[in-house]
Amino acid sequence: MIRILIVDDHPAMRAGLTAVLRAEPGLVPLAAATSLDDTPAALNRTKPDVVVVDYHLPVGDGLVVCRMVKRHVPAPAVLLYSAYADASLTIPAILAGVDGIVNKAAPASELYDAIRRVARGERLLPPINRELLDGAAAELDPEDLPILGMSLDDTSLGDMATALGLEPAEVSRRLDRMIVRLKVEVAGPREG
Amino acid sequence: MSLLLMTRLLAAAVAVALLVVHRVTAFDTTLIVAVSVFTAASLAAFSWIPRLQSAPLAWLVDGLAVLALVAASEDWRSPFYVLMLTALILPSTGLAFRRALAWGVMFMLAYLGVALYTELDANTLRSTIRLETIATHVMVPFVVVLALAYAAEVLERLRDERLRSERLAIESERQRIAWELHDSAKQRVHAAHLVLSALHGQVAGAQAGLVDHALAELRAAGADMDTSVAELREPLEGRSVGRLLEERAGQLASVSDAEIVVRDAIGELPTSIAAHAYRIGAEALTNAVRHSEAKHIDVVLERNGTTASIKVRDDGCGLPAIRRPGSNGLRSMRARAETIGATLSISSGDGGRGTLVHLTLPTEAGNA
To answer: Is B179 part of the contact surface with chain A (CB cutoff 8 Å)?
Structure first.
């Protein structure tokens, strides 16, 4: 049985996801949060195995929520659920600790499969080509590049801190900074 | 222009009345004929050839003509004085503020010249009352120009301000609709697609086809919304229709085997027409690539005098006998064509093979 928390700002999407996940044997949607604000409480209450996060959230985008979920102990697997499954989203998603990315337009079977795989500890991310990596490297400070490399290699925060001789909090702060730098402006109207 | 029409007719009537009541010169009849002819001719010319209303040369001729009438009446306190002032209406409203003032000063000097020519002499200059009268007469043209130019300037500013706020309102409305489409309607479509897709593989036989059909419709709806959002957020951005269709052909070429050739000789089109023409052309091209199984697709953009045309011709399987599910593309193409006053014809290609989409466009935006 895989316990699931949903984070999506749109009620129709939360209801749809909950219904679809409940229909699948072995998957249990426990709760649905709407934003960065109510996710911590939901995490503490439900202790999920997998969190499905909408990338396009109006308050604190999906990646910020992913970072926060990953800081939780024990950290659940995080699946980023996005209408913009663009390749340029991959690197920031990895930096945010995302374990898998699923396109919102994909059929339910793909979502079930992805949830099961990230729950087993697999990573479900599109391949990163040279171009993408060079592009990201050009955006970042040279001192952050080792963190990028280790993140792509799935190194834990603690190991990164040891390897770089830094405090874990400092590594975490730099990760936040890197995500902001690489933030993908989604092709949708923003508030304001 | 209506201001000129009204004041000039009135001024001419006053002038004629003064000439009839008061004997002014020895040849009053000639003057009456002259002023009638001038009034009729000048108003006719300005009304029938609107271009003259903003032509400085026409203003100059008009101004000299009224000054000539004043000179002909042999007195600077002429019955044609008010008529003369009407010659200042067009320049003072048509020129920028400072230039209008300069025109007023020049006219004032010209009138002073006429006054000197007709009567002004040492006697006049010695009489306080007459000096005052001449000063007033000379100043009035300048004051008229000042008032009219100021009013024109204020009106112009008001118009600009209104246009700007209208544009802002349209822009924010577009953003709001895009936001709603994107953040609300599209999320619901995603949710419906997801829920329905859970049935896929669990429904057997004929019903499975129904589910697939509905899923296809939902995906098409999502794609339509993406297109609409893109259109609301970035209307053309000043690129030409030909350029945009070439770009679209390039994108489509990478996902299909068809060879697409775009020939562009359409030139400039008004923005509103260009936006719709592009969406119609892009839809026709997309249909040809997606549904016709064509080997070659020709896109030809031409201009012929006051009409332009876009033809999308393919050598594929032709028009479907029944409407494809999820396609309201043709309907939206027709609706767009109607919006811009274009004609759209969709027919079988040469020799019954393939499809020809022919769009005939006006090259000037309507006065709607």
So the answer is: yes
Does residue B349 sit within a domain?
yes
Per run of 10 residues, the mean pLDDT along chain B (length 368 residues) is 89 90 82 92 92 91 92 85 92 91 93 83 72 87 93 92 91 88 87 89 83 84 76 72 88 81 86 80 86 87 89 84 56 75 86 87 68
Q: Which residue do the tokens 């997606």 mark?
A: B290
Say yes or no: ipTM exceeds 0.90. no
Q: What is the pLDDT of residues A119-142, one digit of tens each?
A: 999 999 888 878 788 888 888 888
Is A17 an 8 Å CB contact of chain B? yes
Measured in whole angstroms, the distance separating CA A127 from the mean position of its chain's CA atoms is 16
The chain B residue lying nearest A58, using CA atoms, is B183
> What is the domain-level CATH number for residue B243?
3.30.565.10
Interface test mutation site (partner B, options A7, A17, A20, max chain B beta carbons within 10 A): A20
Per the omega criterion (within 30 degrees of 0), is the bond before A58 cis?
no
Which two structure tokens, joined as six digits, stand for B175? 């953003």
Could you tell me which residues come within 8 angstroms of residue B363 by beta carbon, excluding any fewer than 6 positions away?
B269, B270, B273, B303, B306, B307, B308
To test the contact with chain A by mutation, choose from B175, B179, B184, B187 the residue with the greatest count of A C-beta atoms within 10 A, namely B187
- Residue-range definition of the domain harbouring residue B291: 238-368
* Number of domains chain B contains: 1
